[in-house]
C-alpha cells in the first residue's frame, strides 16, 4: 500500500533517515513529541501490528528500535517504544511503525 512511509522508503519523499538495514528504515518524526522521536518502519508493508503475522520480521523491527535508541544516546536515561494500532490507538499512517521516544521523562498512563 502506497502510504507516505512507502514514499520515504523509496526516496520519493525526503525524510531525515538516520538508520537503515535490509529490513527497516528509521527516520525522524516530522512532528516530534520528545527531544528524540524516531520512527522505525519495516520496508515490507504491513498495515499495523494487528495484522502482522509470524511471517513478518518483527524481531528485526524491535531490535532496530533498540539500536536507534542506542545511536540517539538515550539507552541509559531510558526511552519508550510505542506502536499505535487503529483509531483508538491513535494510528494515522497505515504502515506498521515503532515510535522511539526519549530525551525527557515519559508520563504514565499515556493520555
Ligand atoms: P501514528 O499516529 O502512530 O500513525 O504515527 C504517525 C507518525 O508519522 C506521526 O507521529 C507523524 O508526525 C509522522 N509523520 C507523518 N508524515 C511524516 C513524514 N513525512 N515524515 C516524518 N514523519 C511523519
List the helices and strands and how they pair.
Blueprint: H1 4-9, E1 17-20, E2 24-28, E3 36-42, H2 58-71, E4 79-82, H3 86-89, E5 98-102
Antiparallel strand pairs: 1-2, 2-3, 3-5, 4-5
The structure holds adenosine monophosphate (AMP).
Adenosine monophosphate (AMP) binds next to loops.
Structure, explained:
The chain has 3 helices and 5 strands. The protein has one domain: HIT family, subunit A (2-Layer Sandwich). It is globular. It starts with a helix and ends in a 9-residue tail after the last strand. Strand 2 and strand 3 form a beta hairpin. The chain is α+β, with helices and mostly antiparallel strands and 111 residues long. Adenosine monophosphate binds next to loops.
Short description:
Helices cover 22% and strands 23% of the residues. It is built from three helices and five strands, in the order αβββαβαβ.
Could you name the key traits of this structure?
single chain; alpha+beta; HIT family, subunit A; 5-stranded antiparallel sheet; binds adenosine monophosphate; 111 residues; 5 strands
- Can you tell me the CATH architecture? 2-Layer Sandwich
The shape, in one word, is globular
Strand order of the largest sheet: 1-2-3-5-4
Instruction: Find the CATH topology.
Output: HIT family, subunit A
CATH class: Alpha Beta
Mean of all residue-level pLDDT scores: 97
Helical residues, percent: 10-25%
Largest sheet: 5 strands, antiparallel
| Strand segment tally | 5
Superfamily at the CATH H level? HIT-like
| C-alpha-based Rg, rounded | 13 Å
